[in-house]
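Subject: Sanity check before I submit

Could someone independently write out the structure tokens for this chain? I want to compare against mine line by line before I put it in a report. The sequence has 340 residues.
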Amino acid sequence: MNLARTLSVLWVILFVATFSTVAQAPAKVKFKPEVEEFIGQMVQKHRFDEAELRQVFGQLKLNDGVVKSVAAPATSKPWFEFRNIFVTPTRISGGVEFWRQNEALLKRARETYGVPEEVIVAIVGVETIYGRRMGTYRVLDALYTLSFEMTERSTFFRGEFEQFLLMARDNGLEPGSIKGSFAGAMGMPQFIPTSYRKYAVDFDGDGKVNLWDGTADTIGSVANYLKQFGWTAGQDTVVPARINGPEYKDVLDAGLKPNQTLQQMQVKGVEATEDLAADTQVGLFSLDVVQGQEFWLALNNFYVITRYNRSKNYAMAVHQLSHAILRERDLQAPASAANP
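---
Independent answer below. Compare away.
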């Protein structure tokens, strides 16, 4: 075989081998532009491995359960229905028991952050019935659906997706194994990823933050969260209001953040049914009851609870459950003392 023919044959072999290799190599999957942008951001900004992220996103798709839950959240129910779900004998008795089992931790949280034991307990009770119901959705699926398959608040949830991946990496967690709510809230206190990274604390001092089965970290983190948003020690959350005339409508539901003094409210025909200083900052809101409406004055601590969940129903459920737990605990105290 002459040299020219030999070179020709070798070129053909090389071409076929190269073509075969290219043909067998898996093509790089292209996602929708928003996902491609997000992956690029995570790689460039946070040094994530692109191939690993593409593998993750290749397994994600819209979750119908998330879509349905977003369309009909429990907080949208009228107050009299919402209350019957969250202020119940099960949550009251469970709260008393949770307090009994964690009395020293709750006392230390109150002394550290100024938040009463019953409020911390009530939040854990409303959120997950003291860790019994922490959510069945894969957080990856929930956040993907909210970030890239739905338009409402997608920017917000992409931020939560970013924080979730960072949280998982920081804590050595497998992202696909983490379960939570349809909105991506996690653990006993149902912290969203941003809250987890910003407000969760290592309250038991073991060098890590665990909100799934770490009761100490849960208690400390709830108290720290409320403190960071301005909880005022020794102040109540709400006071029943009495309405006179039609002018109260000018200030009704004008925002749950206290925005006027009680004296200014009185000019609009709004009175407190309990003693409050005239210069106390308050907000007026209503709740749906079977007979119509009832009216309440929101104090600063009520607004702080709504930073946990921006719903007046939620904040009122925490308020009423906390008082019910405290009453039941006080009722049981004499029996406990008699039978040590």
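---
OP: Matches mine. For the report I'm noting this point. Confidence is low (pLDDT under 50) at residues 6-26.
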